[in-house]
Amino acid sequence: MKEINKINTIYKASVSDSKEVESQVGGPLRSHSEIKRMGEVDSFSSEEMDRLKIIGSGVQNSKVLNIFRELRTQLIQKSKKSNFVCMVSSICHGGGASYVASNLAAAFALDKTKTSMLIDTNLYAPSLEKLIIGDTMAGITDYLSDSSISIKDVVYATGIPRLRVIPIGGNSEGAAEYFSSEKMLNFVEEVKSRYSDRYIFIDAPPITISSEARILADIIDMVVLVIPHGRVTHEQVVAAIEIVGQEKLSGLVYNN
Predict the structure, then answer these.
(1) Quick one: which of 152, 145, 146 has its CA closest to 176?
(2) Measuring CA to CA, which residue among 222, 228, 201, 215 is closest to residue 120?
(3) Domain harbouring 10, CATH code
(4) Pairing verdict, β 156-157 and 163-166
(5) Whether 178 contacts 142, CB under 8 Å
């Protein structure tokens, strides 16, 4: 495993698998009081959080909660305490990237001085709409393909305070071209810079078998790779690391 050992940080984790109202004027959201004024909807109950396999302050499995808190600390240190855009991708389909991305975002949202955003770009297995309270009308693919749709039209509040979701949307044809467009690059820069205390997580398809994930890896700040236990080879892991590149790879999460 010589190639893997070159990574600066390796995370070892044993884990299982309504529209937002935002100000269109003024500078980045910075203060605790401004975060408290964010429009929220009903929060999920502890039972609903457990059913969705999302961590929270009242989660029954405190071990998993502490794992994601530690991952949060590691990512903040890696980014030198600046906000960032992090892509989460697995080595193969069904490897647990959506689970890890959702819980990383939930871990950041536990901190009342921070907000987080989840963006669903997994065209093959979109899953983030389950976190949204209420109906969705448009998502990231609709925004990228329709000039009449603005960012605020695709950002939704969830049942988790301070966590926002952008779903995949209904216009997935030609998504690879959308993700490589100048509009996608500007979108990523906009959602990152709008609020200085917002941390963005992109739930991406498997990095080794999808062009979309490889395209997205070029426009984000860091990547977390999810390795499903017993389902991939050493060669596949090394290939994924080479695709991402050492400069963007923040670490590996081993998923049981």
Answers:
(1) 145
(2) 201
(3) 3.40.50.300
(4) antiparallel
(5) no
28 in a domain, yes or no?
A: no
d(CA 6, CA 184) in angstroms, rounded, equals: 31
Could you list the residue range(s) of the whole structural domain that residue 60 is in? 4-22+34-255
Of 61, 38, 67, 253, the closest CA to residue 160 belongs to 38
The residue among 144, 160, 175, 205 whose CA lies nearest residue 55 is 160
Number of domains in the chain: 1
The predicted model scores a pTM of 0.85
DSSP per-residue letters across 108-172:
HHHSTT-EEEEEE--SSS--GGGGBSS-----HHHHHH-TT--GGGT-EEBSSTTEEEE---S--
What residues have CB less than 8 Å from 218, skipping those under 6 apart?
A: none
Return d(Cα 46, Cα 155) in angstroms, integer: 24
Residue 96 CA to residue 80 CA, distance in Å, equals 27
3-state secondary structure of 52: helix
The pair phi, psi for residue 28, each rounded to 5°, is: -60, 150
202 φ, ψ to 5°?
-105, 120
How many other CB atoms are found less than 10 A from the CB of residue 72?
21
pLDDT digits (tens, 9 = 90+) for 158-171: 999 999 999 999 87
Per-residue pLDDT tens over the stretch 68-100: 999 999 999 999 989 999 999 999 999 999 999
Q: Are 252 and 7 in contact (CB under 8 A)?
A: yes
Residue 158 within any structural domain of the chain:
yes
